[in-house]
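Below is how a single chain appears once it has passed through the pipeline. First comes the sequence as given, then the structure the pipeline wrote out for it. We keep one example in the README because the format questions we get most often are answered faster by looking than by reading.
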Amino acid sequence: MKRIDSARSLVSEQSLRELFSRLVRPPKATPAWLVLPAVLACECPVTTSIQTETRALTNAELTAHGGLATEDDVLPASSCDALCYPSASGSVTGNGNRRVLDCRLTEVAVDSDVIGADSAGGRPPDGTTDDVSSPPAPEDDSGTSLACRFEVKTDCGGVGRWVPGARVGGARPPLRTRARVDAATSSWVSHAAGLERLSVHAFTHLGRQLDRFRAPLGLRQRVQRARNDERRHARQMTALGRELGAAPRVVQVALPERLSLVDLAIENAVHGCLEETWGALLLHHQAATASRREHRRLFAQIAEDETRHAALSWELHAWALARLKGQDRAAVLSAMAAGLAALRARAAAPVEPELVTTLGLPDSVAAQRMFAALEEQLLASTSVV
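Resulting structure:
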């Protein structure tokens, strides 16, 4: 199986720009009868994952539900639905993008350092003025925690560096606006704005980890610049959402204080090298094909920044991989192979025709062509083992 060993990577910002310019071509008109199955198949591309989250229970909650637990501390589904979706979280239950699978009690409370952000505003941990607020701690902590296992479906939309354990909530009721846009377009823009807000936290967290490992100063300074870029992107995409009537989504982030070097390398390899490179290519396509001039201009600005972020990720990958050996190095390369497979499947997912015509996203045929060429170039531009 082909794997990317980028300790000797030839992927650079200039090479990515040249590659993107070759891959982005205006799509040919597709007959309506060919895109109908995509409309019927799903509202927009969806990826599914399993996530576990832990929260502290109050004495009242433990009294009401603790006695229902089985011998292995598993609670019934009705109790899980009630306890895993606290009203303050803004989560979407049941038929939304998160479905609780099961939950169990544990005596050891886990401090997940959860940060919630919504349109009400607040401050992130580094003292900046992004839309971030911390949820209140539960009163009368019982000392018992609840581990909830969710099936999470992430819908279409947006480019940005993902944060492990993060969540972008479901779509909110549309805002009143003169703009007339379809639900798919509104959902995409709303989700994209949420991802840009997550990216601010991702680069903040990345910078702190690189400080711990005493990474080269130039790399750390570029990470700070990328964080500032993402703040601007978040404001721009939120403004676009309001223009189109898309209400901001709830964003929650769980940031581990410390990562091992191998975990940091895996996170950067998958969410930085692969996903940011693919996301930047999609933005370049949108900049060339979106229906409105002001949208093309916005996507072009963001695409330039995201191309720079992708190149930074590849340099960080080379720096980290050069410091890893044996099983740790193999784990990073294995994660990249799995990440490529996941992106390949995402590129094949059907796309709403409104997203193609209005926002300039490639349809599934064009996306698969673009991804195949991108994957071939990445493999050719790095050492393949």
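Residues 4-46+155-384 form one domain.

See the next section for the split statistics.
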